[in-house]
Amino acid sequence: NKIATRINSTSGESYFSILPSESLNLSISLTNYDFGGIITNANVTYRWAYGQGTLLDPENDGTYEIELDNIPAGTYTITITAYAGDDYSFETYEITVNVVSIIPPDFSILFIILAGALVALVTGFTLYQVRFKYPATVRKSRKIRKKISKGKKTKPIKDITSREDSIREHLESNAETLQLEKKTTNGLKEK
Questions:
Q1: Residue 97 phi/psi, 5° resolution?
Q2: Domain map of the chain by residue range?
């Protein structure tokens, strides 16, 4: 019988999520389950989409490490294998690395909306100052006054009624509603 072992990350995690600018520090430990303790002097290798290599144990404490730099955005599976002699039974260990690229916010749409709002505001303010600040009759009379002062010919003015005529016309059109009842001298209505 071979000695039962287990490959595990020192953090206990098998899933890591990092940014593209960050590096991944793989730290693996080999555990002897039958007799307890950490296995040292083993050959621990890794393999993934961008190559393969060996994890090193520089302090000879059973912690095998390697640092992976410049990992492109994406999700990757790193397979860890170990060999410490024919007496040990090792299974492969898989680590999933998710490299998430953060896309900076796109301000072009906001810029376009603000520019459109500014154009609409300037257009509205200009139209108010030039055209809608005064009623149409005032604008028309000022235009005619300017033409007269410059000596230009004006279009013939349509029939303009005097104030008294327009009041009289208005009263006559509403005469039925304004009919007054006659009263007698003693305050009784006449029939």
A1: -115, 125
A2: 3-99, 104-152
Per-residue model confidence as pLDDT tens digits over 76-120: 999 999 999 888 989 999 999 999 988 888 889 999 999 999 999
**Given the structure tokens 């389950």, which residue do they identify?**
33
Range among 31-40, 85-94, 101-110, 173-182 with highest mean pLDDT value: 85-94
C-beta separation of 59 from 27 below 8 A: no
Residue 127 is inside which H or E element, if any?
helix 108-127
Instruction: Say yes or no: domain 3-99 is CATH 2.60.40.10.
Output: yes
Q: Report the amino acid identity of residue 161.
A: T
What does the block give as tokens for 45?
């290798």
Structural tokens at position 134: 């005064």
How far does Cα 85 stand from its chain's mean position? 57
Q: How far is CA 78 from CA 61, 93, 177, 179, in A?
A: 23, 8, 96, 102
Distance CA 187, CA 28 (A): 116
Main-chain phi, psi angles of 111, to 5 degrees: -65, -45
pTM higher than 0.85: no
Cα separation, 166 vs 102, in Å, equals 74
pLDDT bucket at 180, cuts 50 / 70 / 90:
low
Mention every residue, 6+ apart, whose C-beta is less than 8 A from residue 60: 40, 41
